[in-house]
Design goal:
The chain is of the alpha+beta class and 119 residues long. It has 4 helices and 8 strands. A 3-stranded antiparallel sheet has the order 3-6-7. Strand 6 and strand 7 form a beta hairpin. Helix 2 crosses helix 3, helix 2 runs parallel beside helix 4 and helix 3 crosses helix 4. The longest helix is centred in the last third of the chain and has 12 residues. It is rod-shaped. It starts with a strand and ends with a helix.
Length: 119
């Protein structure tokens, strides 16, 4: 058991005192509008985030509290890829672009799907 802990938890002032003794400091970041975590295929967006920075032994740790929303990222398709797929599959550039979006930019899979659908 930790000193100062009762049935209701630790006394906030004792907690601050213990953290100070251990060289740990915390700071709330004000006016946060949005936090975005970017992954390869999607973003995790916090529109109502509360962010706290905890510094311990010279290392900053960020704590995000809020409601996450996962947003799929749209794959950027280069025009050169669209042209190549359209030529290889014998289709329009619009069809090639759509196939590339559906296959998340996979050239070979897009050509195969377009070739199969035209047979």
């Amino acid at each position: 058991m930790f000193p100062g802990m009762g049935g209701r938890g630790m006394n906030p002032s004792k907690m601050k005192q213990m953290m100070k003794q251990m060289g740990i400091s915390t700071e709330e970041i004000n006016d946060v509008e949005q936090v975005i975590i970017r992954k390869s295929d999607k973003d995790i967006v916090f529109n109502d985030a509360s962010v706290t920075v905890m510094t311990a032994q010279g290392v900053d740790t960020y704590q995000i509290v809020g409601t996450p929303e996962e947003v799929e990222r749209e794959v950027e398709i280069p025009d050169d890829d669209v042209k190549m797929v359209a030529e290889q599959a014998g289709t329009s550039e619009d069809a090639a672009r759509e196939a590339l979006k559906n296959t998340k930019g996979d050239l070979a899979e897009a050509i195969t799907k377009l070739s199969e659908s035209s047979e």
